[in-house]
Design a protein that fits this description.
With 225 residues, the chain is mostly beta strands. The chain is 0% helix and 61% strand. Strands 9, 10, 11, 12 and 13 form a 5-stranded antiparallel beta sheet that branches. Strands 5-6-7-8 form a 4-stranded antiparallel beta sheet, with no helix packed on it.
Length: 225
Amino acid sequence: MGNGKIKGGRVYQTSLQYYGYNAATGWAGGTLHANANYSGYPSGTVDQSGRSIAVCSQSPQQGQHWLRVWRSGAGAWNDLGPATGVGIAAMTSRAVALGDTLLVAYVFTGGGGPELQVVRYDEAAQAWGAPATVAQGAGAFDAVASGRTLWIAWVQSGQVYLAFSPDEGATFTPVPGPSGQSLNAQAGCDASAVELFAPDDGTLLVAFDERCGTGPYSVVLQKMQ
């Protein structure tokens, strides 16, 4: 996806598209949004309780960047509007469902540096709530649901941190690692990416890369019971 550009007097539009696969009918898709002044970067999807899919996309509007969310249901896509009310840059996002509750985690770069936040969609009000800040200075991150608990892990200054929210993203409790607050296997070694997995057995797996100085990269897997 790129910005709409004018070339040779023609406007080349940017569109945000989706595709789904059905074993009986094959691939099918459509366009969620298309506009010459729109630039979409899909960055998160989720199967919400088996009944809908949410798609996050960054788009510049009125001189600022917004995180918009579309959700499918009853055979149609609905625009849930901007999940963020601030101008954001270099943003990544991840949508997560806790039952029928839709949450979106995202990192944005503001005046005070990168910040990791989580925002909840209020089904009754049909609007996004106020964001909760998880961490300052966060980089790569991942989020996953396990039952009614939201787990989120992030990289900050080369260290991997983990926290959980039992109240749909309102508050977060840090989880200490094997040798301190971070989950890094070796003190002084740096991580740059992290992924979370929540198997059906109730455990939580945290996978990340780790490099000590100029040595080789290794993959670390931490298991939470």
